[in-house]
Each structure stands twice: as C-alpha cells, then as structure tokens.
Amino acid sequence: GGGGGAEEEELTAQETALYDRQIRVWGVDAQKRLSKAHVLVCGVNGTTIEFCKNIVLAGVGSLSLMDDHIVTEDDLNSNFLIPHDESVYGGKSRAEVCCESLKDFNPMVRVAVAKGDPSLIDGTFIDRFDIIVLSRASLKTKLFINDNCRKRSKHIAFYSVDCKDSCGEIFVDLQNHSYLQKKPGGEPEQQELKYPSLQVWKFNLNFFCRFVEIKSFSSCALLFCTPSLFAPRIRFV
Amino acid sequence: MASAAAPASSEEAVKAAKVLMVGAGGIGCELLKTLALSGFSDIHVIDLDTIEVSNLNRQFLFRKSHVGQSKAHVARDAILKFRPNINIESHHANVKDAQFNVDFFKQFNVVLNGLDNLDARRHVNRLCLAAEVPLVESGTTGFLGQVTVHVKGKTECYECQPKPIPKSYPVCTITSTPSKFVHCIVWAKELLFAKLFGDKNQDNDLNVHSKDGSSSKLDVFERDVDEDLDQYAQRIYDHVFGYNIEVALENEETWKNRRRPNPVYIRDTLPEAVKQNGSSWDCSNDHEEPSAMASLGLTNPQEIWTLAENSRVLLEAFKLFFEKREKEIGNLVFDKDDQLAVEFVTAAANIRAHSFGIPLHSLFEAKGVAGNIVHAVATTNAIIAGLIVIEAIKVLQDDYKNYRMTYCLEHPTKKLLLMPVEPFEPNPSCYVCSETPLLLDVNTKVTKLKEVIDKIIKSKLGMNLPLVMIGSTLVFEDGDGLEEDEAANYALNLEKVLAELPAPVINGTKLTVEDFQQELSCSINIKHREEFDEEKEPDGMVLSGWSAPVEKQINSNGENKSAASSSSARATDDTVEDPSKPGMKRKLDELLETKENCDASSSAQVVEDDDDCTMLDGNPALIKKKRLQ
C-alpha cells in the first residue's frame, strides 16, 4: 500500500511534505500505521463518500469500494465524486465512478473496485481488510458481516453508518480496543475498551424499545434516546 | 439586512440566497462543497492565497498540478464539475481591499468566514455590522473547531468578547535570558538569520562588537575581504555561541537566580572542522534545492540532532547560502517553506538551547514553531463546514431562537463531540458594535501620535486606514487620495507628542477614531499618566474599557479573566454549563504545551527593534475554548 514498504519504513519526503499538517496532529507513528491499513466500504452514497474522501486524503494504504448499483441521476444530487457528464458515468456502477475520482485525491493511495454483494462476502474475502464500513444494508447483512469480522483471527473493525433526513446513526465495533491515553503531567496510560457486537447491542436496544415511543420517520431517533454506554453518539444540532 | 419576509421553507431560503464565503482553504473547500450540495446557487468566494503542497491533505478541491494557482479560482472550477449550473464568482484578492466595501457586503444574505487570521476576521466583522448582514464565523485547529453566529442587534458581534492580545516576548528574554525553546527560535529567526541574510539596514539587537581590538571593523558579522567561507562561518559561530555568552555571563546580576549558560565554541563541538581548511562538502546536484541535511546525509526530519550534528548543519547551511544563494543574501526573510532557512534556524536555535539547558528539538518541531504552523486534518473541517451550513440556513430563515454557537471538541465526561450553546446578547461595552468609549492611559508629554496609532489604533483596535480627530480637528488620516500638503501635515503630526498636537491632547481629551472602510467609529478618552511599568506595560500605554463584564470566573486556573457570561446566556444542553474543568483545561493545556508559541492569543512573535508586538494569526478555536472553561 501507500508509501510504506521501505526497509527502514520511514516516511518518504513526498509523504512528509503532503502529510505535514496532519502528522502534527496524530504523529508519525499513526501516519505509518494508517499507510498500511486496508479499508472496505460497502455502499457508496453521500455519507460514505465523505468518509472515503477523508480517509484517502489522510493516506490510508488502500480503499476498496463495493457497490454494483448503476449510477442514476438521483446519485448526482448527493455525490460530489460523480461529474455531471453522462459520458463519464453512464452505464457504470457507483463504485467504478467514485473509484476514479478518489484516485485523483491522493495518488499515493490504492483505490479499487470490489465487485460483489455485501450479503454474500465470506470470511476469507474480508481477511484482507482492517476496517469494514457498511451503509444502507439490511439488518441481516449488518449482523452477518459484523459476525464475520468477529470470527476472523485478526480483529477487523466494523462500522455501520446511515443517514435519513436530518438524522444519522453510526454503529461502531472495535471489539477489544486498547489505546494510550495521555495523562496531564504523567505517563501515558493504557486504556481498554470492550465493544459489544451488533447482536448484543441490538438485544439491549430491543429491551429498551418497549419503553420508548417509536417516532414515525426514523428508528434512528431511538439511538439518541437509549442510554448509550457503547457507541459514541453524534448529535445533530 | 433587507427587510423581506422570512421565506417559507429552508429549500426556498437556500434557493434565493446570495452567499459570500471568505476563505477557500481548509474550511472553504469543505464549505463550498456542502453549500453546492445543499442547493445554494449564488456564491461569491474571496481568497488571496495560492495553493501549496501542504494544503493537499485536506483542501480536496485542489490537486498537485494546481500548486501555485489561486485557491478561489481553482475551488470554483472544481465545484462546477459536479454542479455546473450554480453561479460562483471567485475573487483572488484580499478581503481587506477597498473594492469589498459596505455596498459590496450589502448584496449578501449571509457571510460565511473560513479564515485563518484574527486581523481579517475583525475586518469582516466590522463590515458585516456596517452592512447589517449576518455573519457565521468558524475556525479549526487539529481536532478542535467551532462555529459561531453573529447577527447585529441580536447576538454578540465577533469582537464583543475581546480576543486575548498576542503573546510577545520581552527583548531581553530573547537576547539574554531564554528559558524556552521558542525563545531560541525567535532569536535564531529574528536576530541571527536576519542579521546574516536579511536587510542590513534593519536594526538588530545582536551584539556585533568584538572585545579584542584585533579587528578594526565595527561589525563582527561583516565578512573580511577574501575571507575563507569556512573560517567566516566558524568565526560567526564562536562569536554568537561563545563570545556573546561570555559577555552575558559577566553581568552577575542577571544570573543570580538563573541557570548560567555555557558558552559553546567550535573547537569543542567540532574539533575536526577547525583543522579542515577550505574544504567544502560535495553538493553535487546544482538543480536541487540546496539542503544542509542532504549534504550531510541526515534524512529524518523527526530526529533530534546532537550538538555536533546541529553544529555541522549550521555551518553547512551557512556555507550553502553563500555558495548557492548569494544573490539573495541581504534580502532574505525567513519562510517556513524555505528548507535551507528552516535547517539554519533549527540548528542555531538548538545550539543556543543547548547553551541554556533547554531541550533540543527536531527540525519538524522547530519548523512548526518557527513557521507558526497550525496543525490540521480534513475531518474537522468537514464537520465544521456542515455546521456552518446548518447555521446559515437558520439565519436565512430568521430562526434566531435556534441560532447556536457550536463547539467541536472531545467532551471530557459525556461522550459528545458537539457542544451547542445559545449565543450571548451583544456586549453593551463592546467598542465595535456598541460604541462605548475606550480609555487610554498614556504619557501625553512624551508619547508621539505615531506610537498611539501603531500600537493602539492599528494594532489593538484593528483599524486598517484610520482617521484621528480631536474635536473637529483632523490630526491624521490614512489612505490613498490625500493631497500633498495634507499628507505632509499628517506626517508632521505623527512625530509630535500628544500634548503638542494642533489640538492638544491632555488628560480628559477625547479622541475620535474612525475607519471609513470598516465604517467603525469609536471614542478614546485620554488619561494622562507619567509612569509605566517596563515589564508589565512595555508599550508605555494601556487601553482599557473593552472587556466584557466578568460575572463568573470559570477557569479555576485564574488565567482567563475575560470569561464572561451574561444573564441571558443559557446553555441548550445542561451538561454544557459546567464542563469538567480539568478535562477541558487539559485539552487546552496539551495544545498550549505542544504549540508553545501558538497559544490562544497567537503564534510566535516577531521581536522588532522598538519592541512592537506584531499581531499574528490567532486561532479563535482556542480562544473560544477558554471562554467556555
């Protein structure tokens, strides 16, 4: 992927110049790890392309896009990666068109199309990824993929995102996540977070459902009502 | 603002809106994209900057092939690719230019700022007040950011909360008693680098005299005719790091309570260099940018060099300037994108730091300090841009009950990313939007008008082209179109002390100061005072009366005295009212630690000959955090 792979694994001069401002935020170490990471995005839409833009600009190792839907005029409304030129997008899948645009954002990142159906992908396929982002998938597919992520020997991070009207939801499963937290005036402390699987979290959600009125336009609203110990909530103001 | 009835729906409001975006950089690119996708179809963009490589990690409308081109124009073209039918007018210009006057601003329904400096923000604030156009302000630094709404008469203006004055370092700290790395950087940049490569006519505080009567020249920095470059370099090295330190050590008083610095000589740090005569490193490739690191085989900018390595870099950089860039010497100004200059300043600062027992830093870190670099990522800008549009839509619908100031930060206890707060009412003592007079303590017998204009009117009050009146007597005017005799008269007045102006300024006199372009007018009441504390009041004058009434000291550290709250302010979310202090302060502290010179007030200061503080770029993101603490 990216610029990594040299014996010493130092960032190249090109990377240092391009990523200067963000290295000052998260450090060289994080940048190096980022450049070796492989991400899969299933479902190319307004929400996920924002993520794609950001992760490609940041210099991720590789990004694979899975979405076989053919581009329609509807897509043009919320997707800034699709040029208004039918000769460019006509007859192509969302993944194909967006892939080409994203490559442009950062030539050092490998962006590719992954053909297939998210509900059918198997364990060995997802092994090549460190992170999977899922959008506009059925609950069944979300559970299926989340389950697969947990079954693999390597930890694969799982994100499911969706936006409806002015509401958004995100589900995060990093399984067992450890990180270093800087303490004021002291040594960095190791912290551990245990994320529940979607299966477990959904069970808790159903439990509280009985006590909360279901809003008409979005089941997402429930996410903001339930006391959440798990996924961070993004509030829309 | 034009008194049209509020539009029925947000869609209609957006369609009809004419929007001005100031800044097409980090926030600007994201904002322009979001505006376009949200249905805005009439947008003006102003940005004076051109595209640099370091922009490309987040300013996604730009490509490598665009480096050097205008941000405003390229951003416009990029947006039109996926929204060909909207109207975008791009201006590659400074928003402070005369063409962007009040009439220009009046044509817009809302102004959206994506700026990176305090000066421009204040200017836009004043124009928006004058034109009565709502302003949505914003700023980001790393993971932090905020969006604020300013509507004349309804909310605070951008300047109702005074922004803290930029950090400046006393001259003696820089020249004699540095205690932090940033002091060494300022010394290396503003003294050593400037002395050797900058304008020779500029005053410089570096000690240029040599005690030993052997040299007949006045200035030890002058190169002798036919002096060998190596020798010249080593001589300068010994002078600034060795001799000058010894001289400083002679003053016992200074070091009574301070760690004594160690003089550093080339014979100790690089014994082998002294023996070599006339040898120069092989800088083979003439086409590449000359670099001391490259010549010496130092490849990692994150590495902290040893004293010996720093010394080698210094000497090598010194020589490369003379060997490869001789023509520029005498005109050079430090530029963070000038690799050789950064290497030189890093090495010089490190050697000085070593002398004074201050930890050394890598080139990467030094560059950040010397170049006032603001760290930045794409995601924060994207979030902030989204929030800007949300507020803009509220503004267009006159939905003032729902205006929010939104802070993007890691809430220490709740797992929230965004903290919305209701805006405060206008500050009745804000000299910008409430026309309350200010008070200036000054010695009217010895202070010249020029000093008041530079230090107070232009600097603190942020006026661009001020006009100063005493009663009905015009004593000073700035700008184009002045008659020769008028200009001559003003020039004379500048040099007069206040008490001796055509209309004398004494205790109790009231000055009227105006900036025609900003349509800002304010009064300054003069109070005569004889004595000023050199350390605490280095300007020799003190301006007061423009801080908000402090009802609640929020910051337990006691540092932030301008924390204000008015009775009408209520947090939307109860948890916001008392964010866990240690957590928020820690966040701020971390920032302040890592970017010593880039604290809430500003970035590293230029130490000029007469101790003037130059107001450099400040990031309100940090300032706002302080306010809420």
Number of helical runs of chain A?
A: 9
Q: What is the helix fraction of residues of chain B, given as a range? A: 25-40%
The number of helical elements of chain B comes to 20
CATH H-tier superfamily of the largest domain in chain B: NAD(P)-binding Rossmann-like Domain
CATH architecture of the largest domain in chain A: 3-Layer(aba) Sandwich
Keyphrases for this structure?
heterodimer, A: 237 residues, alpha/beta, 2 domains, two-stranded antiparallel ribbon, 9 helices, disordered C terminus, B: 629 residues, Rossmann fold, Arc Repressor Mutant, subunit A, Structural Genomics Hypothetical 15.5 Kd Protein In mrcA-pckA Intergenic Region, Chain A, eight-stranded mixed sheet
Write the layout of secondary structure elements.
The complex is a heterodimer of chains A (237) and B (629).
Chain A (H helix, E strand, L loop, with lengths): L12 H23 L2 E5 L3 H13 L3 E5 L6 H6 L7 H4 L4 H12 L4 E4 L9 H4 L4 E5 L3 H13 L5 E8 L2 E7 L2 E6 L7 E6 L3 H12 L10 H6 L12
Parallel strand pairs in A: 1-2, 1-4, 2-3, 4-5
Antiparallel strand pairs in A: 5-6, 7-8
Helix pairs in contact in A: 2-5
Chain B lengths: L9 H7 L2 E4 L3 H12 L4 E5 L24 H12 L4 E5 L10 H5 L3 E4 L4 H14 L3 E7 L2 E7 L20 H5 L5 H17 L31 H21 L16 H4 L1 H5 L16 H5 L10 H18 L14 H17 L7 H8 L7 H19 L8 E4 L9 E4 L16 E5 L6 H12 L5 E5 L2 E5 L6 H12 L14 E6 L4 E9 L12 E4 L29 H4 L3 H14 L25 H9 L1
Parallel strand pairs in B: 1-2, 1-4, 2-3, 4-5, 9-13
Antiparallel strand pairs in B: 5-6, 6-7, 7-8, 9-14, 10-11, 10-12, 12-13
Pathway (chain B): Protein modification; protein sumoylation
GO cellular component, one term (chain B): cytoplasm
Keywords (chain B): ATP-binding, Metal-binding, Nucleotide-binding, Nucleus, Transferase, Ubl conjugation pathway, Zinc
